Amino acid sequence: MIGAGKIKQYANVLDKPLSRGRQEVSLSAFAFLFSELVQYNQTRVDNIAELERRLEDAGYAVGARVLELLCHREKGNRRETRLLGILSFVHSTVWKVLFGKVADSLEKGTEHEDEYMISEKELLVNRFISIPKDMGTFNCGAFVAGIVKGVLDGAGFPAVVTAHFVPVEGQHRPRTTILIKFAEEVLQREARLG
Amino acid sequence: MAAIYSLFIINKSGGLIFYKDYGSAGRMDTNDSLRLASLWHSMHAISQQLSPTVGCNGIELLQADTFDLHCFQSLTGTKFFVVCEPGIQHMEGLLKVIYELYTDYVLKNPFYEMEMPIRCELFDLNLSQAIQKDRVSLFGR
């Protein structure tokens, strides 16, 4: 709070306004922590699908908390109830808080009605990571997919969320696309709401 | 003609973990590069002990008739060295840049095993960009 001369004392901790949070953390510290998270999980799995699932689970817990926090902090204790509303909430609000910027793009899948894609040219968690050839299509963005799943599940939009590398023409590095496939009930409800 | 002939990275026990040559001069096969790396490791260690100056950190520059060898040792004992044309000045800076790329794209990569040969796509990519940039700045002067 700008201009607040001294810190006000609150008798009850619940009266205290919610902190805005620190806007920046060290990228290196995060990169090392994330690298350790991946390495730790790697020692506990037999195959790549399992590793992907474990990273997703780790992200899910983050997503559930982020939803709770941001609804309170940014939305005045309200949450989005419509499909497009929650998607743009993930694409802009959540992304901004987690990665300091809005996601590069949010698109609707062309082949299926229930699919949406959030694309990022260089996903923060993948900034320093080179996937070895023998791991095939594995993407550490599974962690971010887990976060998105956590947010959507918590808000009442159950979905299957996966992370994929998509090659871009004229670029060395593929971009990462977070593919969101909503459950049938979500689309039915959405149709009912009109 | 390329200013830099080749780049080596050796781990703290003297094993070659990265080797790349630029241009045709001084190119060598795998066995020779491994031999040269461990030879340099030992020479570096011996020079440290033989040096008359107190607190010597080993050879930083070796000057020969046909090449210069610049070496940079990190705190953990990983050595980076480049073989280049004689009389090139700014190699310390380039070695620091390479060290920075190593800490970013190799050490922060969860799939890299410490002290093992470096096979990281992003490291290769950024390294070649750094070398390219270095060449441009060299010719620009």
UniProtKB/TrEMBL annotation, chain A:
Keywords: Endoplasmic reticulum, ER-Golgi transport, Golgi apparatus, Transport
Gene3D superfamilies reported for this sequence: Trafficking protein particle complex subunit 3
A single BP term in Gene Ontology: endoplasmic reticulum to Golgi vesicle-mediated transport
GO cellular component, one term: TRAPPIII protein complex
Subcellular location: Endoplasmic reticulum; Golgi apparatus, cis-Golgi network
InterPro entries, per the entry: NO_sig/Golgi_transp_ligand-bd, TRAPP-I_su5, TRAPP_component
Primary localization: endoplasmic reticulum
Subunit structure: Part of the multisubunit TRAPP (transport protein particle) complex.
Recorded family membership: Belongs to the TRAPP small subunits family. BET3 subfamily.
Protein name: Trafficking protein particle complex subunit
Species of provenance: Elaeis guineensis var. tenera (Oil palm)
Classification of source organism: Eukaryota, Viridiplantae, Streptophyta, Embryophyta, Tracheophyta
Gene from which the chain derives: LOC105058261
From TrEMBL, chain B:
Source species of the chain: Elaeis guineensis var. tenera
One Pfam family cited in the UniProt record for this chain: Sybindin
Family from the record: Belongs to the TRAPP small subunits family. TRAPPC4 subfamily.
SMART domains for this protein: Sybindin
Subunit annotation: Part of the multisubunit transport protein particle (TRAPP) complex.
GO biological process: endoplasmic reticulum to Golgi vesicle-mediated transport
PANTHER family reported for this sequence: TRAFFICKING PROTEIN PARTICLE COMPLEX SUBUNIT (PTHR23249), TRAFFICKING PROTEIN PARTICLE COMPLEX SUBUNIT 4 (PTHR23249:SF15)
GO cellular component terms given for this protein: endoplasmic reticulum; Golgi apparatus; TRAPP complex
Domain of life: Eukaryota
Main localization category: endoplasmic reticulum
Keywords: Endoplasmic reticulum, ER-Golgi transport, Golgi apparatus, Transport
Presence of keyword Transport: yes
Name under which the protein is recorded: Trafficking protein particle complex subunit
